[in-house]
Design a protein that fits this description.
about 10% strand
């Protein structure tokens, strides 16, 4: 009946509902549900958004030798916009070449991770856009660099020494803000005395001058990332690059190169063009989680076109 078909259509809109779940709910075969979905879900190419986010998701459905599907999102309207069969420069170029130049010229902002083909293709085909890299990915690189120096110093310590214990057990005190350093002191069996997190934190920084310097630089960048305005970003980033270079810490050489290579895109990430939201790929990451859920609850999709249609139907109200 029409009522049942309408109910099925609503359930197909839910990323948590598999074809099998829907079939069981309405006492029909999952083949019938698939046929219904394939017949009635229409997923044409949607117009490029003004604020485009580009990201990827690992999938066995990726084609042409790739390992990732490329995901487009509308950062302004908070919806999925497109799924491409891989994230290569060739695939992205072919996709944009099919879109009228007049439509491409309306894209004002693009957010990406630090995958070079994204930047190259956007510069070529989206001529009026401002490209920003996701600040989370920059912080991730910084944290990985800091972890390398922490682990390197730990490996030079005598096993089970106080320094080794601190760097092995309490390194999170140097890596996150989730601790109240002035908590109530507790008995520490290693040092046989009551200590709070600040005591342990201070002992960590006393282990090595290089570790302390690396920590201070990391926190300077994190503070810059949290508080800086777009107007001040260029000047402050130049200053930070000088500080990192002056430190002469090997662990940060790769990060310095990253800051220089992606400097314009890092600065652009501080712009807040919509609802006072900073430019980032946070929405793309959120939508990717829902896409992974859709794949997981369905025990893995193998048909890319079917997956694309269902994903767009679930995550874009225009369909």
């Amino acid at each position: 009946s029409y009522a049942v078909l309408n109910a099925i259509a609503l359930d197909l809109h839910n990323v948590r509902m598999t074809y099998k779940d829907i079939a069981h709910k309405y006492h029909v075969s999952d083949t019938i549900v698939r046929m219904y979905a394939d017949s009635f879900i229409r997923a044409p190419r949607l117009t490029l958004p003004e604020n485009l986010g580009i990201d990827e998701i690992s999938s066995s459905m990726a084609k042409y030798g790739g390992s990732y599907l490329c995901v487009f999102v509308d950062n302004n309207h908070r919806t999925l916009n497109e799924i491409l069969p891989n994230r290569s420069k060739v695939t992205l170029s072919k996709h944009f070449e099919m879109i009228p130049q007049s439509e491409r010229d309306k894209v004002k902002y693009v957010t990406i991770d630090m995958w070079e083909p994204y930047r190259d293709v956007c510069k070529k085909y989206l001529r009026h856009c401002e490209i920003a890299v996701d600040p989370f990915h920059v912080i991730k690189h910084l944290t990985e660099c800091f972890t390398r120096i922490r682990v390197g110093i730990m490996k030079q310590c005598v096993y089970d020494s106080p320094s080794y214990y601190l760097l092995k057990t309490w390194h999170k005190l140097l890596e996150t803000d989730s601790f109240d350093l002035d908590n109530e002191p507790r008995y520490n069996s290693k040092f046989r005395q009551k200590m709070n997190y600040r005591d342990l934190f201070n002992m960590l920084l006393e282990i090595s001058p290089d570790l302390k310097l690396a920590y201070e630089l990391k926190e300077l960048y994190r503070d810059f990332n949290k508080r800086c305005s777009f107007e001040e970003a260029s000047m402050k980033l130049d200053y930070l690059i000088e500080l990192f270079e002056h430190s002469d810490l090997d662990c940060y050489k790769e990060f310095i190169s990253l800051l220089k290579h992606w400097k314009p895109e890092i600065i652009n990430s501080f712009r807040r063009p919509y609802d006072d939201r900073r430019q980032s790929n946070a929405l793309a990451e959120n939508i990717n989680q829902k896409l992974r859920l859709l794949i997981e609850v369905s025990n893995g999709y193998t048909n890319l076109e079917r997956f694309r249609a269902r994903a767009l139907y679930c995550l874009n109200d225009k369909l």
